[in-house]
Amino acid sequence: MDNMQIEISNLNKFYGKKHALQNINLSIGQGMFGLLGRNGAGKTTLMKTLATLLNKKSGDITVCGIPIQNAKEICRITGYLPQEFSMYPSMKVYEAMDYLGVLSGLDCKTRKGRIPGLLEKVNLGDHHRTKVKALSGGMKRRLGIAQAILHDPKVLIVDEPTAGLDPEERIRFRNLLCELAEERIVILSTHIVGDIEATCEDIAIMDNGKLLYKGTVKELTRTATNKVYTAEIARIELNALKEKYIVTGMLTMGERVNVRLLANEQPTTNAILCEPNIEDAYMLRMHESGVAAHQLGGNL
Amino acid sequence: MMFLKEFKKTIMSLTYLIFVGILLLMYVTQYETSVAKIEAPQKGLQSYGVKYEENKEIIIPNAVESLYGEFSANSYIAYPIGFYKNVKLGDKKQGEMVAILSEMTGISKDDLMADAGTDGAGITFGEGDMVTNESGEITFTVPGEGEGKEVLPSRISIDQKLTYERFRELMKDADKLIGGGSKYSNLTDFGSVPMTYEDALVEYKAIVEKDKITGALARVFSDYLGIVLSIFPVFVAVALGLKDRRAKIQELLYTRRISSFRFMFTRYFAMVAALFLPVLLMALYVTVQTANQYRGVDIDLFAFIKYSCGSLLPSIMVSAAVGVCLTVLTDTPIAIAAQGIWWFIGINMGLQHIDGGYGSDLVIRHNKVGNTDVYLDNFNTLVINRISYTLLAIALVALSVWIYELKRRGKLDVLGSIKKIFIHRKVESKA
């Protein structure tokens, strides 16, 4: 059995004086792995470092047993979909795939055999003669996935793939990633909690270059048990409540508001404890890690 | 396979089409209009042109007289880096110049200085007059013969003991005093003499026998196209280099398996092949055209191809390599400015060798049908020149490979650093 594991130990990365990655230790196995964090948390830096696009300051990384220093081998086993996937606008879809296939060292026969199937898989089979500039955002992103798995990599690194996609396209994209994760390591970086909840079992949370959490979604959710309440309050009470607690959801119904919030104790007399979800747990983790109250919208 | 894809990418770009258009324009407007059918000279013509001889009897007096004239006016014409410059020497250097002139002429320094006059030299008209009429026009009245006073001696005498070797040394010193690039840096230009019918016949025979007609024509073909090919490939290289950044696919390319060496060199050679293609097609066209024009004459059918490969290809290679290297390094079009300056200086310096001579010129000039012996005499220089530029081009691409690899691994970001400096300055100035 192949070594299907990414090992990161004591990873540090600086941008000038900014400590962009601080002593990251992480182990990623086969399947979907979610990397969650706010914008600027260091997710893209970590993804780029894994894709050999950035140079680390210190620490060790091995991808399927190959040290990250062996960039050529890493490129052979890794597929990468950057945050802003783009291609030469005047190239046709098939042409773009063929060009990138050549750069990945695939021979003509392999490319001819693989590209049509991949385009079908990402629902671009009918668009193989369409120019890249004529594709919609979602189609472009699907082309991005197709090119990333063109050389059949063991590892797929996908950076913020669903940003800007409509709900239908987002669901389709998430399902596609799950399919691909059946036989690969797929690392999905996002700041959208819903994407992680729908696709990943193992996750890590990053903030300010640090790893705040690593484990399963279930374990993370469990940490918020007995801390999530729902309550129906008057609309005029909402601001006071928001200043005091972290509100993770609200539904306005005329003059009344149904709020979902995080609290150590029952916040109002009519508040009811409820089952936490990953979003609640994520907000709780961020709060516990010292993220400023005003950035989260309140305290506990 | 990658070569073909990159080749296609190059020829489908707008910049490339503009390049081909300019090349064609140069061919049609310059080469086709300046080359007439080569025919044997006819006896009894008034002029057969001029030729340059390394004849000390002609060169020494012409050069000394020229130097004396410039010394007297303290106004020396020079092209130090190909640009016109009027040099005025200080007292000390003029003192050294008068010593050189004194040694060459045998005239004492004092006499030379006195002849030069205090306000510079020239011809002064003692009894002349200047009248301004009502409409503001100025009329000079020049006195009759013998009435004026001519400061400049009509002909400077040459010291009989002056050897040609010493003369050359002294002229080299004079050129140094002027700052280089003066008329005295290339003394052959002072050896201009009118060509006779016999000379013209010898030249014609050289064109027919040594050049097989097409060789002489191919040099002029290369001369004109060389002007375009020493600069315009940089535009194509820059446009293609920046295409990756504009399309935002640099990261995507960086993560592919292909090595930086193979990637850069394949791209480069595909681009050079695309740039050379129209030159080759034009060479083939002009070969067919010339073969038709000289039916029955023994011509070299491969001359245009040989000159295109030997003389023009290195120019394309180096210009494209500058474009590749500086674009990979900076992600900006700065290569166009760099190559533009180099080309401009090269063109001006090449004017010194416009009829052949070559030296270390970037742009190989040979703007004369014929001059076969000058070409043959300088053939080794030409070969060294072209090989050197080819090697320089390869070295620049090798440097690009190294830069690309550093960028690919996130170890170099020149554009990012430049941006940071500007942002930092903006913040500071706002503060």
UniProtKB/TrEMBL annotation, chain A:
Keywords: ATP-binding, Nucleotide-binding, Transport. Gene3D superfamilies: P-loop containing nucleotide triphosphate hydrolases. Pfam families: ABC_tran. Residues 6-233 form the ABC transporter domain. The keyword ATP-binding applies. One of its GO terms (molecular function) is ATP binding. Belongs to the ABC transporter superfamily. This is ABC transporter ATP-binding protein. The lineage of its organism: Bacteria, Bacillati, Bacillota, Bacilli, Bacillales.
Automatic annotation (TrEMBL), chain B:
Keywords: Membrane, Transmembrane, Transmembrane helix. The chain crosses the membrane at residues 224-242, 263-285, 305-329, 387-404. This is ABC transporter permease.
